[in-house]
Write a structure and sequence with these properties.
The chain has 159 residues and is an alpha/beta fold. The chain is built from five helices and five strands; from the N terminus they run βαβαβαβαβα. It has a five-stranded parallel sheet with strand order 3-2-1-4-5, covered by helices on one side. Bound molecules: magnesium ion (MG) and zinc ion.
Length: 159
């Protein structure tokens, strides 16, 4: 059998798809798309590559939101992206607190490795778009290319 691995585009969530909040996004009402993000996601959806969200959500480990609420936020996010003719093929998140020392909280590469296994991805040809040094570190640890977004990043994607 031919073992075909596909490249993917990994997307951080907070600060890339939606605005960061100092008090965290704890419910859908607090979720606000970054300017240009929906249009950029529509552009990215033209590629045949899987689009995979990888996000640290320690709010679960800290007891600020439960998994059901975070899953609801993601279901609403994916629906809104689809309404804008974009797509997200998978959403993976780490629910742990930093002091739990798990292997999935970025800068660890666990989420990327999980996605690679389940979706048969070629990490060496994949990209991670993030807004933090920890995103770059996770990408490097997984052997992906990292793209650190600047404020005008989504505007550039649209050019
Ligand atoms: Mg971020
Ligand atoms: Zn974790």
């Amino acid at each position: 059998m031919l073992n075909v691995l596909r490249p993917a585009i990994f997307l951080d969530r907070d600060g890339v798809i939606n605005r960061n909040r100092p008090d965290h996004v704890k419910c859908w009402a607090e979720f606000e798309f970054m300017p240009g993000a929906l249009q950029a996601l529509r552009q990215l959806a033209r590629l045949s590559w899987p689009l995979v969200v990888v996000s640290n959500q320690a709010i679960i480990g800290r007891g600020l939101a439960n998994r059901q609420t975070v899953d609801e936020i993601h279901a609403n996010m994916v629906f809104a992206i689809q309404e804008a003719r974009g797509r997200v093929d998978a959403v993976l998140y780490c629910p742990h607190r930093p002091d739990e020392h798990c292997d999935c909280r970025k800068p660890q590469p666990g989420l990327l490795l999980q996605a690679a296994e389940h979706l048969h991805l070629d990490l060496a040809r994949s990209y991670l778009i993030g807004d933090a040094e920890t995103d770059v570190q996770a990408a490097q640890a997984a052997g992906c290319q990292a793209i650190l977004v600047l404020d005008a990043f989504w505007a550039l994607v649209l050019l």
